[in-house]
């Protein structure tokens, strides 16, 4: 990969590729969206692109801290988007991170009301291209009105995009890939959540010629092809977009303690349990998870999160079943709040990831493993996670711990799947596939971004016509 960059610099120096392409990026206002957009920005910024990274001041503040640690950030320019302020939504709430749920509707509205300012920004910055997110048809319309091509980039996988578009456009018709489906309780949850449907469809429609996905052919090739065949554009995978520069972050005492604990365990003997930064387990789920980890007899680290503001006041001992901590002793470690996921996955003692199957976590499990990809025990919670869990199982790098018909987690099932994926002979093929796929993805580096650079350069060099 280093040689690739070097080669490109030499080519640029010789003047073969001199025109710098200016790209304005506008992700949705949450960390889960901003982070993959920023990974894309970093990769494009070392490939002859200048990036205007556009978000609210409160979001840009946290990006600034991340960017100053890097040296090569001069071609990423942060651009403030000011949402109209209102009594309900002061500027520190101009982000979906930690936003009280009842204010979400105000945030979405305020974001749309910033369209006029967005238009002025485009006029003054005159980018060659706009990259916008799933719920912003207005951003594409404004770009189009100024003859600037705009392409959509979604942070979810191709199977989810294909399945979601199919559900919205052809409800009632069967999805052509039977391995992707929803269970009864998952369907009921999904149906409650269709508020943004029209906006999502419009945004998809507006994407100019191509459509960008956080995906790769090794995982979702057939869904990527299906999308390009079914909808009138080329669907372009951008690769896993997993952050690279984590080794520099300094150890705090708690991280050190976790690493020392891992050091004592045998190779691939620990399951790491974490369910994302936006989901909190219900009491039923906490109890089932404890049972599962207990019955599995496998070493574990469990990152147990609670909502901001409540976390300080909760005692782990009180939410866990009586006697659980004494029973597991040194076999398990429970971490309240945030855990150093990269370091844990990279440690050679870690041999399984009990995960909600958030799309980032799936990629991280494969790419951050210390000795190749780490197999997944899937416990999907909501949104795209059930579909991701089906993908993980279909490509053979993990198994889902299935819930009962009401959607309750089952301790015995969790224990059974942990043992299968990590210990039993029946899971050997899954462990092998995960390891191998992880190695393939790491070796491939940013091949997708090299393709994307060519794709975008072509898009910007031809005459724009809507
Ligand atoms: C998307 O575009 C197609 C064809 O141009 C059109 O028929 C359809 O109504 C559009 N859908 C939306 C939601 O704008
Ligand atoms: C947490 O405890 C502190 C100190 O007892 C208290 O001031 C605060 O209101 C509590 N927070 C919540 C969310 O209960
Ligand atoms: C890059 O593009 C070429 C030509 O279209 C294709 O064969 C190859 O699979 C692409 N590579 C990746 C990693 O997507």
Largest sheet: 7 strands, parallel
Question: In the CATH scheme, what's the topology name of the largest domain?
Answer: Rossmann fold
CATH superfamily of the largest domain: Glycogen Phosphorylase B
Low-pLDDT stretches are none
For the record, what CATH class of the largest domain applies? Alpha Beta
Written overview of the protein:
With 466 residues, this protein is α/β, with parallel strands linked by helices. It has two domains: 2-239 and 446-461, Rossmann fold (3-Layer(aba) Sandwich); 253-443, Rossmann fold (3-Layer(aba) Sandwich), CATH 3.40.50.2000. It contains 20 helices and 13 strands. The strands form two sheets. Strands 3-2-1-4-5-6-7 form a seven-stranded parallel β-sheet, with helices on both faces. A six-stranded parallel β-sheet has the order 10-9-8-11-12-13, with helices on both faces. Helix 5 (115-125) crosses helix 6 (137-145), helix 7 runs parallel beside helix 10 and helix 12 (283-296) crosses helix 18 (411-422). The longest helix has 17 residues, at 428-444. The two termini are 36 Å apart. The mean pLDDT is 91. It binds 2-acetamido-2-deoxy-beta-D-glucopyranose (3 copies). One 2-acetamido-2-deoxy-beta-D-glucopyranose is lined by residues 217, 237, 447-448, 451. Residues 201-202, 205 line the site of one 2-acetamido-2-deoxy-beta-D-glucopyranose.
Q: What is the structure about, briefly put?
A:
With 466 residues, the protein is α/β, with parallel strands linked by helices.
């Amino acid at each position: 990969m280093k040689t690739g960059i070097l080669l490109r610099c030499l080519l640029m120096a010789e003047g073969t590729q001199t025109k710098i392409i200016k790209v304005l990026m506008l992700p949705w206002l949450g960390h889960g969206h901003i982070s993959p957009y920023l990974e894309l920005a970093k990769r494009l910024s070392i490939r002859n692109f200048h990036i205007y990274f556009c978000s609210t001041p409160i979001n840009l503040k946290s990006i600034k801290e991340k960017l100053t640690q890097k040296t090569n950030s001069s071609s990423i320019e942060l651009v403030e988007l000011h949402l109209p302020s209102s009594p309900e939504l002061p500027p520190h709430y101009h982000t979906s991170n930690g936003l009280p749920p009842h204010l979400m509707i105000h945030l979405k509205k305020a974001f749309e009301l910033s369209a006029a300012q967005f238009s002025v920004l485009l006029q003054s910055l005159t980018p060659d291209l706009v990259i916008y997110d799933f719920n912003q048809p207005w951003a594409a319309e404004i770009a189009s009105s100024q003859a600037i091509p705009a392409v959509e980039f979604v942070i979810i996988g191709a199977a989810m995009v294909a399945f979601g578009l199919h559900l919205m456009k052809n409800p009632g018709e069967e999805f052509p890939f039977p391995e992707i489906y929803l269970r009864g309780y998952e369907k009921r949850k999904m149906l409650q959540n269709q508020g943004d449907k029209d906006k999502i469809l419009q945004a998809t429609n507006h994407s100019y010629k191509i459509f960008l996905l956080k995906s790769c052919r090794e995982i979702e090739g057939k869904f990527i092809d299906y999308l390009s065949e079914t909808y009138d554009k080329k669907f372009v995978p951008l690769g896993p977009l997993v952050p690279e520069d984590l080794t520099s972050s300094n150890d705090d005492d708690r991280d050190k303690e976790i690493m020392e604990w891992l050091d004592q365990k045998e190779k691939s003997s620990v399951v790491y349990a974490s369910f994302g930064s936006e989901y909190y387990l219900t009491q039923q789920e906490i109890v089932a998870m404890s049972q599962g980890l207990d019955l599995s007899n496998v070493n574990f680290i469990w990152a147990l999160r609670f909502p901001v503001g409540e976390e300080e006041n909760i005692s782990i001992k009180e939410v866990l079943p009586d006697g659980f901590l004494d029973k597991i002793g040194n076999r398990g470690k429970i971490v309240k709040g945030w855990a150093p996921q990269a370091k844990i996955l990279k440690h050679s003692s870690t041999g399984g990831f009990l995960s909600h199957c958030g799309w980032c976590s799936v990629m991280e499990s494969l790419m951050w493993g210390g000795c190749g990809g780490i197999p997944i025990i899937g416990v999907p919670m909501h949104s795209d996670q059930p579909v991701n869990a089906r993908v993980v199982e279909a490509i053979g790098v993990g198994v889902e711990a299935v819930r009962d018909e009401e959607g309750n987690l089952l301790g015995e099932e969790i224990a059974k799947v942990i043992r299968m994926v990590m210990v039993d002979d029946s899971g050997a093929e899954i462990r092998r596939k995960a390891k191998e796929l992880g190695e393939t993805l790491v070796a491939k580096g940013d091949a997708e971004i090299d393709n994307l650079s060519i794709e975008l350069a072509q898009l910007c060099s031809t005459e724009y016509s809507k």
